[in-house]
Predict the 3D structure of the following.
Amino acid sequence: LMCIKFLTSILDPCKIHQKGYAVNRTSKGDMITMNKLELRLFWRITLLTVVGILASSFTVTANWDVLQKQDPEIRDYMSISFTSAKNGWAVGVSPLELDYPGFIGYTTDGGATWNKAEIDVDAQLARVYFLDKNHGWAIGENGKIVATTNGKDWEIQTSKVDNSLKGIYFVNKEVGFAVGANDTILSTKTGGRTWKVLQGGIIGAVGDDEATMYNAIQFLDESTGWVAGVHLVPQVSQNSVIQKTTDGGQSWDAQETGAEDVLEDIFFLDDKHGWAVGENGLILHTSNGGDKWTIQMSGTEETLRSIQFADKYMGWAVGGDLGVGVIVHTNDGGKNWEVQDPGDPMVQRFRMNSVFIFDKQVWLAGGNGVVLLGK
């Protein structure tokens, strides 16, 4: 029915595209189609069946505790955020809930158990950010923004856009930013009660127009921040994008990356040291605020989707694609990266989507609701 892009060779008679899979015709010329629920369930079953023949790049065994192998409702965790060793939140996708696919969960025991927040969200959620134990925001498809001011009760905020939102960051309880598809950058000075469209926000025809997709954003203060993503000219070119602002997002200056892959995340430790990750195992590093970016060898060709550092030396990045998750670690600022084995064959079958570091503890989360803890 569907085709899987293996690391070893092309699987005939499927036509494999550079960026994924294709739905092909039968011998009679009929097109095979699936609805969203059927497709999600198909992949769940198929991946568990074929994972044994997928190539694995894990090489270094690490001390990871598997807190959760599977969410009870088979939810995919796309992003996590912790404010203490015990209290954290996760957002993502509930594949069995077609009307309300957005998921917000919380833990009070360090990630061992997760409970669903009392809100139904009619859009898949991509990222969550908590400033403290009370103030948090989550963003996702169709311009969806949901927020809490007490860490428990959530409400929908009006973003003024319908584009998918991919990244969010708050400097304090009032000042925050969100980014997404079609050049979209939003800002708020009211904690999200009102949002202003700084640029973009117009829905374009996918695949037809030149556009920039912003997947991640981080600010150091109300003035200085970075966004990361990709600039696409259909049928012509694709280039990695990192832009910097020093005036609170009113204007953005492009920073040269020398790369072409989609960037999925960006992380700055301070005003000088930063990293960005993306497709094909790409890791970019700067030690001068982005004036110059250099490529670091990650040791994997899988897409890296999230990165964080505890200090200038110790960091993790995670990612993967259909049927395989990947964890890479450095203890020298990225001069050398090691691919780590989570220690459980079941866990490594699922894509890792998010890494979060708090007080010398490292949480990872991903597909199927997998949650790992490293200390």
Notes: Residues 59-374 form a domain with the Methylamine Dehydrogenase; Chain H fold (CATH 2.130.10.10). Residues 63 and 97 are 34 Å apart (CA to CA). The mean pLDDT is 87.
